[in-house]
Amino acid sequence: MVNIPIRFRLFLRYLCLLSSLSLVFTSQAISIREASISDLQLAFKQNRLTSRQLTKFYLGEIRRLNPVLRAIIEVNPDALNQADRADRERKAEKHVLLSSLHGIPVLLKDSIATKDKQNTTAGSFALLGSVVARDAGVVARLRRAGAVILGKANLNEWSGFRSLTQPNGWSARGGQGRNPYVLSADPCGSSGGSAIAVAANMVAVSLGTETDGSILCPASVNSAVGIKPTVGLSSRAGVIPITPRQDTVGPICRTVSDAVDVLDAIVGYDPNDAKATREASKYLPQGGYRQFLKVHGLHGKRLGIVRHPFFNFTNKPSQALAFTKHFATLRQAGAVLVDNLKIKNIDVILNFNLSGEGTAVLAEFKIALDAYLEELVSSPVRSLADVIAFNQKNSKLEMTNQVDQSILLASEFTNGIGSAEKAALSNLGKLTREGFEKLMMRYELDAVMTPGFDFTPVLAIGGFPGISVPAGYDTEGVPFGICFGGLQGSEPKLIEIGYGFEQATKIREPPSFRP
């Protein structure tokens, strides 16, 4: 446990006091903290709240909390103007059905491009001042929905692809992000800032990206809901890449219903990510995803339990007890638990190097990043080699002299997709077919459920979706989640399962800011 100075302890007490307050905007009181999108939209409709007031509240929370939590890299200087526009539109179109995100502030991971006054840097000084050609595809959809783009969230620099020594939640631009439940605990990444911000009520909803665990892990340890969509369901155009084969953009929110509202807004075909989004469009349900928010969504669902190695609760008695109770709750809700299953070669799949994932991703990252940098309107760097040279020249910026760039260097040493990479990709396909896919089909499962986030490599290498829902808190107060993963296009089932579990348990609590 870290030694916390007295003045810092006093500040923490101040944060706890703030979390118990409500704000009064009219003659009626509305508590913005912990408010869902539905709550906020109802307040808009009843003229108890405006988008400007909501946005100002979040900007105030950012000023108070961000010096400690370091969840946000920068705020959008045009956020209040966007909120004012939403308020004008609401008055002018009072009889028109507006999007559920209309007037709602949304925070974006700092790898998601915006064509405005904000930077898009993946947390790196190397991209500070670069100019993108257009909004990312998901941002264009958010704007069309009337959302307010609040700012950019901190992340593991280069989405965790800079260094083997890089701390979770750290970037050169953003500093060290902190878990709002236990400040000394791992906030996870790479979308750590997005999860920290929504957990601490610095924003209503956020977007993260995932290549392997970057949404599901921070959602789990920050007591948030994260949805990792099927690869291609949401556009990756304008998102600083790791590998298009695994990259996906998804919501991190406080509730399943909020995450589904965001998911509905961002999915669909994008000509700038044509191949992947066209292929995944076949999975889009007519009428959107909100129809799958069913209180009894667990009834009849077949959930697989893979004991090895995911249910190892050595030195984790609180998690062991929690999942014993969760099993009972799931059964009472009508779910069928298919226990003691095994995924073929699971130990290989979970090993980044043995599976071939490491070999493939290192080569794919260089190709994808070089292509992204070349398309920028202007930039201090135009290739991965330029990024490495920039870091070497400017190593004294913040902590960068303490964090190497071993992964960037390893990627730069690759030379396209050669025989080794092709063999790795072939092996990943074989592991997926003979492992997760075969298990799901053989036992006719709707999803596999696991504690925490250790299941993410299984989902990553197959482009599969997953949802993480708060499942409890350990003896130190650190949150942990439950992960449900399914086959491509199974978001409707995962939403039913995740929402059913959330409504049956209602576990999530506001953060405690423990030292």
From TrEMBL:
Gene3D superfamilies: Amidase signature (AS) domain (3.90.1300.10). Keywords: Signal. It comes from the Eukaryota. Residues 1-26 form the signal peptide. InterPro entries: Amidase_dom, AS_sf. Residues 54-453 form the Amidase domain. Pfam families: Amidase (PF01425). PANTHER family: AMIDASE, OS04G0183300 PROTEIN. This is Probable amidase At4g34880 isoform X1. It comes from Rhodamnia argentea. The gene is LOC115742017.
